[in-house]
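BUG: 3D viewer hangs when loading the predicted structure for this chain

Environment: internal workstation, default settings.
Expected: structure renders.
Actual: progress bar stalls at 90%.

Input used:
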Amino acid sequence: MDEKIRMEIEGLREELEAIYKDIHRHPELGFTEYRTAGIVENYLRECGLAVTAGIGLTGVVAVLDSGKPGKTVMLRADMDALGVQELSDCEFASQEPGKMHACGHDAHVTMLLGAAKILSRHKELFSGKVKFIFQPAEEGHPVETEQKLAEAGYDISGCLSGARVMCDCGMLDDVDACAIMHVQPALPSGVVSVARAETMASSDVFFITLMGKGGHGAEPQNAVDPVPAMAELVSAIHAFPTREISPAETTVFSIGSVETPGSTWNAVAEKVVIRGGFRTFNEDVRAYIKKRLPVIVEGIASAHRCEADFQMIHGYKPCINNEELSAFMAENLRELLGEERVIYPATPSMTSEDSGVYLEKVPGVFFHLGIGKEKENPPLHSPYFKFDFDALTVGVQVHVKNAVEILKKINELGE
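C-alpha cells produced before the viewer hung:
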C-alpha cells in the first residue's frame, strides 16, 4: 500500500475513534439499529456514495462506482449489539441498560466507514464497484421486530437474520466476490487470521420434552419416570456422531440444559426438558443429523414408555471460504502487514455467523482481525469485552487492500 494512503488512513484515527465511542455508548439490538443506521447513512452520503437505507428496517447499502468498467466486490459490517449488561470500566461504556457491543460490531461499522471514505477519495485505485453492506441482526433480534418486518413485506420464516434479509432483497445479485472481517480478541492486535475453506460452523438448536407420569418417589411402579429416558438419551446424543458420522467430519453436540420442571427430590418427575444444539461444517452431515435425531429421541422415549416432543430451530449455515480467494487474500495481506502478522491457513472455529448465506451465494472470504492487547483478553460476548484502538486503522487498511486487490483479480479473470 502506498505510504501516502497509509498516512491518510492514520489521519482518520481521531475521527474514527469518535465514531466508535459514539456507537459503543448507544448499542441497539437486531432490526432496531435506527440510530446507528442514521450515522452510517449520513457518513456515506457525505463521502459521495450512492446510498439505499431502510433495507430490513435498518440496513444500509452503499455503492462506490469507480467510473470504469469492472466487477463488484462487497464488504460487510454488522451493526447490532447483544443483550448483555456491560461491566467494563471504559469511559465510553454503554448507556443502554442490558445492551452492549460485546462482539465488536461497533468496530466493524467504524472500520468499514473509514474504508469507504478512503476508497471514495481514491477511485483511481480500482476499476468496477465496491458495495458496502451495513447489515442488521447478526446476533439475533427481539421477537417483536418480526411483526414490523412482516408488515413491511419481509419473509420472516425459517432462519431470520440480517444477512438473509440482504440476500432476499437482492443485495448480492450484482456482486461477484465478497470479503467479511470480524474482530477477535483471542488474536494479538493487528494480526489477521484467514482459514483456507471451513471457517465458521453451522448452528442448530433443539428442544426435547420427554413426558412420563409423575408420582411418589417411593412408588416408581405407579409412575412412568422420564429421567432414565433422559439419561440414556443424553448419552445416545453424545455417542451419535462417533458411530454414525465419519471421523473425518467435525461435528459438535452440546446439551446445555436439562430440567425436571415442578419436581423435587422425592418425586417421580412428570416430564424432562432438554435443550441443546449441534454444529458442523458439512451441509450433508447437517441434513443427516436433522433427519436422524428425532428418530433416536422417539425410539428411546418409547423404550421407556414415555412420549416425546422434538422441536428444532434451524440456525445459521456454515461459513465456507473460497479456497482460491482465501489464499489470494493471505498473500496480499502479508504484503500489507508483514509475513508474521498473517495466519494462514488458520484453524476453523466452531462458533457461528450469519455470513454463510453470503459465502454460499458468491465466492468470498470470512476472516478475523486481532484486537487482543493484554496477556488475557475478555472474549467475544463478555461483559468485560474491550477493543484496542490501534486495530482501527489496521482494519481500514485491510478493507482497502482487499477491495482493490480482489477487484483486480476478478476483473482479470473476467477478461
